[in-house]
Design goal:
Blueprint (H helix, E strand, L loop, with lengths): L7 H9 L8 H15 L4 E10 L2 E11 L2 E8 L5 E5 L2 E5 L5 H23 L5 E9 L2 H4 L19 E10 L2 E15 L3 E6 L8 E10 L1
Parallel strand pairs: 3-6
Antiparallel strand pairs: 1-2, 2-3, 4-5, 6-10, 7-8, 9-10
Length: 215
């Protein structure tokens, strides 16, 4: 029986070998939870686990209890339109298109995981968490061409750094409702997940993922 926290990056690499693409975020969530359960049979796994933290009733995507303590995972799966067949299974990925909101959602997941850390720390429980985003949208991992957009401080491309107070908007027109204050310092490191056949431009469709670990 292991006292080490589940290795989420390793589980993602293992999952990619048998599930290179998912129908939806829920499909992704279930498949990753299944892989982690198989890899760490000693832990208890919960999906969409509700509890109160930061004064609010909240849900977490995956909550793992084990000898190591608690691991919490928040997952995002924003996609652009893609259709194809993998093995004998047909896929029709949706076009989500609001990439600024995808960035905001990922950063807000990190913020929530930091708040959950406070919750478990007060209960003397060892805690580790990761916000994971898997996508086939190059605009999320490529450096921006325009650096004056309203989501400039929420960019998550390769080597982007998330820390301190992040403000949504532009100078003189900040939107306080989306302002997010992070306690940690997170540098984005993207990793290839899979390559799918075809795309809208008849070129290979790449899936990549990035994770921010909160401890």
């Amino acid at each position: 029986m292991s006292n080490h926290a589940p290795d989420v990056p390793q589980a993602l690499r293992q999952l990619a070998g048998r599930r290179p693409v998912f129908h939806s975020e829920h499909d992704f969530k279930f498949a990753l939870a299944q892989t982690l359960q198989e890899k760490y049979p000693e832990v208890d796994m919960r999906l969409e686990r509700p509890f109160r933290a930061d004064g609010l009733r909240q849900h977490v995507d995956i909550l793992i209890y084990g000898p190591h303590g608690v691991t919490v995972l928040e997952l995002k799966y924003p996609t652009r339109k893609w259709s194809g067949t993998v093995g004998t299974e047909e896929f029709q990925l949706a076009e989500h298109s609001a990439w600024d909101l995808a960035r905001l959602g990922f950063v807000r997941d990190i913020y929530r995981l930091e708040k959950f850390a406070e919750y478990f720390t007060t209960r003397d429980t060892a805690y580790q968490a990761s916000a994971v985003l898997l996508t086939n949208v190059p605009a999320l991992w490529e450096p921006p061409r325009n650096k004056t957009t309203h989501d400039a401080q929420f960019r998550i491309h390769e080597d982007a750094r998330l820390k301190g107070t992040l403000r949504w908007g532009t100078a003189g027109a900040w939107h306080s409702g989306n302002e997010t204050k992070l306690s940690g310092d997170y540098v984005m490191r993207w990793e290839n997940y899979s390559t799918l056949p075809g795309s809208r431009a008849d070129a290979p469709a790449q899936l990549r993922w990035v994770a921010a670990t909160v401890a």
